[in-house]
Every structure is written in C-alpha cells, then in structure tokens.
Write a structure and sequence with these properties.
With 169 residues, the protein is mainly beta. The protein contains no helices and 14 strands. It has a single domain, classed as Rieske Iron-sulfur Protein. The protein has strands at residues 3-4, 13-14, 24-27, 45-48, 51-54, 65-69, 72-79, 83-88, 102-106, 109-113, 120-122, 138-139, 141-146, 149-156. The structure holds FE2/S2 (inorganic) cluster (FES). FE2/S2 (inorganic) cluster binds next to loops.
Length: 169
C-alpha cells in the first residue's frame, strides 16, 4: 500500500475533513460498494413497560470491513452513500472486534457498539460514550478515483514508526 500526499484527484469525493493537506493517504483497495451499508441494518427497538428495549436480531451481519493500512488494523464502515468511516479495529476497552459491532444512532451521534461489552464509540470522533478515559483511534476517509478505479483512502498524520527498525534511520 503506497501512501500519497496528493490532493484528491478529479472525480474523487471528499467524505471526511480534508483540511490537513500534509496528511499521508493510503489506498485500502476497497471499493466503496464493497462495504455493507449500515443504514440497511440498523437495530430495532420496541417500547415495553420497562422502557425502550432492543429487539434481538436472528442474523448477525458483519458491517465493518477490516483492512490494515500503515500498519494499523482498521474497520471501515459505510452509512448511506456519503458517509464512510475508519476506526481502529480492536476495541480500546478490552480487545473486542469493532468490525463486528452494530452501528446505531445514540443522541444523534452515529456510533459503533463493540460486540463484546456493547460500549458505543462515536464514529466521527472515536469518543467512548461510557467513559471519557477511552477513545478509539479514528481516521479521515476519502473516496478517490485512480486509473478509473474508485477506492477508499485513509489519511494519517505520518508513517507508523513501529514499521521501522531504529537502524533504518
Ligand atoms: S471490549 Fe469493547 S467495550 Fe469492552
């Protein structure tokens, strides 16, 4: 995966904040249509005497697409045609696989709920809604067209230094 510092090419669609021109952008080689649209798989709720209750689903669909870019395991999510997200795949609480989490709207914030203890993380910021002490790494995403092929790019502020040995420098 080769990073790029180029601004988005013609025909690409900026989907997250792109006000950091010095970012390194990595191609995930994932076409946007390959990612399951979470809008089609939102959890359902019903009102009971004890309050709002979530209806258990029979089938679990994995909404997140796992990728490794810049040495980081990420989960890519899609919500409708315009909203794409990249968040660290391993839950910062206790290692749950966020790629297998549900996407739900909580207090008007789109969140991924960890499949392990159900703690929600805001997809736009990575903030954990259970505790301020935890935050999932969250990265900007763009769709770019390269040689006629559309794919998801993820932006990083620099190369992951853990990919290098000290002697390399
Ligand atoms: S491991 Fe994710 S909420 Fe606990």
């Amino acid at each position: 995966m080769f990073p790029s510092t180029h601004p988005p090419s013609m025909g690409s669609m900026g989907l997250a904040s792109n006000n950091a021109p010095d970012m390194l952008w990595f191609d995930t080689f994932v076409h946007p249509d390959e990612i399951v649209d979470s809008k089609d798989h939102m959890p359902e709720y019903e009102y009971t005497v004890t309050g709002l209750k979530r209806i258990k689903k029979r089938d679990r669909i994995q909404l997140g697409t796992p990728v490794v870019v810049n040495g980081k395991a990420l989960a890519l999510f899609r919500h409708g045609d315009k909203h794409f997200f990249a968040i660290q795949q391993i839950c910062p609480h206790a290692g749950g696989n966020l790629a297998m989490g549900d996407i739900e709207e909580i207090d008007r914030m789109l969140c991924v709920s960890c499949p392990r203890h159900k703690w929600p993380f805001v997809l736009h910021t990575g903030d954990c809604l259970v505790t301020e002490d935890l935050r999932a790494e969250q990265y900007p995403v763009e769709i770019r067209t390269t040689n006629g092929l559309r794919s998801i790019f993820v932006g990083f502020s620099g190369l992951n230094q853990t990919l290098f040995y000290e002697d390399d420098f």
